[in-house]
Amino acid sequence: MSTEDKSDAQKNITKWASTDGHFRRQVSSFRDVIEKGGKFEPEKGRYHIFVSYACPWAHRVLITRKLLNLEDVIGLSVVSPRMGALGWPFAAADEFPGADHDPIQNSNHVRDLYFKSDPEYSGRFTVPIVWDTKTSTIVRQQRKLGNYPFS
C-alpha cells in the first residue's frame, strides 16, 4: 500500500482548524523520553530533529536545542513551510529555499517517517519530531525538547 492510500484522515489535512478558526494540536502518539537506563539512551549523534520554520511549536524546540548547546549532539533537518495535501514536504518534494532533504530515511514527506515508525498510524503528521536513527523510529512529536541528559 502506498503512503498516498494510508489514511482517510489525511485527505483533509488542511482542515484542522476548529469552528472558531484555531488550530487544535492533537494529543501526541509518540511520547517516549530520552533517558539514561531507558528505552532511548542519550547518545551523541543518535537523535535527529525534523522541524518547519513555519511551525511555532518547532521554534520552541530550536531555541531549546540552541540554549542547551545540543547543536553538535542532535541533528536537524528543516522541511518546506508549504504544507500541502501530503503534509510537510522535504526538499525532494518541494525545492523551497532552506528546505532540507531527509538525510536519515530519504523521505519525501514527514508522513513517510510516521509510517516508518508505525505503518498503522492514523493521526496528523506534525512537526517537530525527534527521530531515533538507531531504531528508525519517532521518539516524540511534541513541542518540548525536554530535559535530555546528554553529557
TrEMBL record:
A Gene Ontology molecular function term of the record: ligase activity
Keyword terms of this UniProt record: Ligase, Transferase
Known EC number: 6.3.2.19
Top-level taxon in the UniProt lineage: Eukaryota
GO CC annotation terms, alphabetical: cytoplasm
SUPFAM superfamilies: Thioredoxin-like
Matching Pfam families: GST_N_2
Organism the protein comes from: Thanatephorus cucumeris (strain AG1-IB / isolate 7/3/14)
InterPro entries: Glutathione_S-Trfase_N, GST_Omega/GSH, Thioredoxin-like_sf
Domain (GST N-terminal) ranges: 54-137
Name the UniProt record assigns to this protein: Putative glutathione S-transferase
Higher taxonomy: Eukaryota, Fungi, Dikarya, Basidiomycota, Agaricomycotina
